Amino acid sequence: MRWLSFPVKKKFNRNPVNIHEILDRAHQIAENGFAKTIDFTTFYDPSLPPVPGDQDLLIQVFLNLVKNASEAITDATREDENGGEITLTTAYRPGIRLSLSGEQAPQNLPLLVEITDNGPGIPQDLQEHLFEPFMTTKPHGSGLGLPLCAKIIADHGGMIDFESTPGQSVFRVLLPIASEKPETGA
Ligand SMILES: Nc1ncnc2c1ncn2[C@@H]1O[C@H](COP(=O)(O)OP(=O)(O)OP(=O)(O)O)[C@@H](O)[C@H]1O
Ligand SMILES: [Mg+2]
Questions:
Q1: pTM score of the predicted model
Q2: Is the pLDDT reported for residue 185 higher than 60?
Q3: Ligand 1 within 6 A of 74 CB?
Q4: Which domains does the chain have, with CATH numbers?
Q5: Are strands 111-117 and 97-98 parallel, antiparallel or unpaired?
């Protein structure tokens, strides 16, 4: 039997963090390492409020997603490494309210992050199982990248999904923002 154990830190921070600093960090690590030949574009909404979260864990999520995007591109264009593009987008979507399992009231998840690549897309038969552990098409993949992303985002009260067609995959992460309620008492 294989046991699934994620290297998630025991102590989970919930400090207000800037999502763009997190994305920039993931971008920087990728650009200096595994994604040297890929063109990155960012479309950031600079007015986004902070996210209550754990900076290190969120960097891990977006780094995993950028790594998957990059691996999909370089795998598909191995003959010609040019033309690979990854886009990082952030936006404010105040209307999105979702009932998450285990939650009483619908959650407001207004902060949207999208990671888009122009790789080959995810095969239809794989799409239904994408977030299952050990699901991999890579010779040295663990298939734990996406389940770990889903776990960390769920721990942040958010959600992750994707849309993929041949030539484009988009991974979307929705997150709550830091409470705007005024402090009570005093
Ligand atoms: N952007 C993407 N484009 C195409 N396929 C993808 C993309 N992201 C994920 N996949 C597919 O989903 C599978 C599972 O991804 P996941 O990150 O969970 O594991 P992995 O990347 O195979 O292994 P590891 O993350 O341990 O390196 C991948 O093997 C790949 O087939
Ligand atoms: Mg992966």
A1: 0.90
A2: no
A3: no
A4: 15-175 (3.30.565.10)
A5: unpaired
